[in-house]
Structure formats: C-alpha cells, structure tokens
Specification:
about 140 residues, alpha+beta, 60s Ribosomal Protein L30, Chain: A, seven-stranded mixed sheet
C-alpha cells in the first residue's frame, strides 16, 4: 500500500492511502484518513475495476456492483473502517439502468442497517460504466 502523510496546523494528521488491491491513478488517492479529536475516512468514488485497472462486468450492473462493494470494503479496511461506519452513500447509475439490480446486491452486503441511500441517474460518455459509488464515514 502506498501512503503519504502530512500534518496540519489544526493538530490533525492527514494520510493519503492507495491499497494494493485498488487501481492507482496519479490524479487521485483512493482513501484519505483525517485523524485528530475524531477520525474521518474519505473514500473516493469507486468503479468496477481491479488493481490493474481492468474493467469488471462490462454491461452487467450486478457484477459491477459486486466489484464496487469489494473495492469499497478494501478501501475502508485500509482506513481502519468497516461498512457499518459508512454514514452516507451516493450511487450514480447510468440513465436507463435498473437501480433495483444494484440495490439487491447492496442489500445482500449491507443487510437491514438503516442508512441514507440517495441515487442520481446520470448519462456518461463511458457506456461500460453502469454504476459508481461515493461514500463518507466518520469514526469516533
């Protein structure tokens, strides 16, 4: 895992993490952990790609959702968090795709925990990407 740390003047520590199991791009960091009086873990938007950047599940929303959730769990673990720590989910689904398909996979992993689950239908240039997820969590 690659890691970069910086201190801030507000007595907190900021760590930029790129777990080995996630695709690495020079333009972004997969996980940022801010520690101080509380710990907050930010996970960048995750798509259905493996560590080498290979796209998984072309044209299959279910497979894409499964891979995204695996990536999210790996990102959370790198930051010392788990799914139950997530306080906000944003799901972006390609216009014309069934949100129910992705939600069924999500419910299998998430269970019956209460949570906000907003969604936004989008139209993207990349027709292979049917779904993308963004999430925030705070650890006290």
């Amino acid at each position: 895992m690659t890691q970069q740390s910086e201190s801030t003047t507000a007595k907190c520590q900021v760590q930029h993490l790129n777990p080995d199991t996630l695709s690495k791009k020079p333009a972004f960091t997969n996980v940022v952990v801010v520690s101080g009086s509380v710990k907050t873990v930010y996970v960048g938007g995750q798509d259905a790609v493996d560590a080498s950047g290979t796209f998984i599940g072309k044209g299959d929303l279910k497979l894409q959702t499964e891979k995204i959730l695996q990536n999210i769990q790996a990102a959370l673990a790198a930051g010392g968090a788990r799914l139950e720590h997530v306080i906000k989910w944003n799901i972006y689904v390609l216009q014309g795709q069934s949100l129910n398909t992705g939600f069924e996979v999500f419910q299998r992993v998430w269970g019956n925990r209460p949570n906000r689950l907003p969604s936004l239908a989008c139209s993207w240039q990349d027709w292979h990407t049917l779904i993308s997820w963004q999430k925030w969590m705070r650890l006290l």
